[in-house]
Design brief:
Distance between the termini: 26 Å
Helix content: over 70%
Number of helices: 6
Shape: globular
Oligomer: single chain
Order of helices and strands: HHHHHH
Structural class: mainly alpha
Largest sheet: none
């Protein structure tokens, strides 16, 4: 199976999904699926999707950059949507607690997804010769 140049970091990123899952279930560290908030079921579904991404990256390494780009765009889109909803729809709880529009876990998720998305985009552009 040919390994596309530069895809090893993406394989490691998706292999780390099990570590993110353990940190989420064990310590409430939801940095990989912060956009689902308190919904354990939705977060487990996202982790399952990331495990499927890992399987594809291992099975078809030439697809790694495309898979990572699509997953990162989906993650960033969900983060933007959930953050935008909190900004547009201000609740009494937000006013009473002073909780901001973006949580620390969401910021970490933005950085992870944005970084992986940028890396995957650069790999894809390099393949196109751009």
């Amino acid at each position: 199976m040919p390994r596309a140049p530069g895809t090893l970091p993406l394989a490691v990123y998706y292999a780390a999904t099990l570590g993110f899952l353990a940190a989420d279930l064990g310590f409430g560290f939801t940095a990989r699926a912060a956009f689902f908030g308190d919904s354990v079921t939705l977060r487990l579904g996202w982790y399952a999707l990331c495990c499927a991404c890992f399987a594809v990256v291992v099975w078809k390494p030439l697809w790694a950059a495309l898979v990572a780009l699509l997953e990162s765009v989906a993650s960033l889109s969900l983060l933007i949507l959930t953050t935008a909803l909190r900004v547009v729809i201000v609740t009494d709880d937000m006013i009473e607690t002073g909780r901001g529009a973006v949580t620390a876990m969401e910021m970490i998720n933005f950085l992870l997804s944005g970084g992986v998305g940028w890396f995957a985009l650069q790999l894809n552009l390099r393949r196109l010769g751009a």
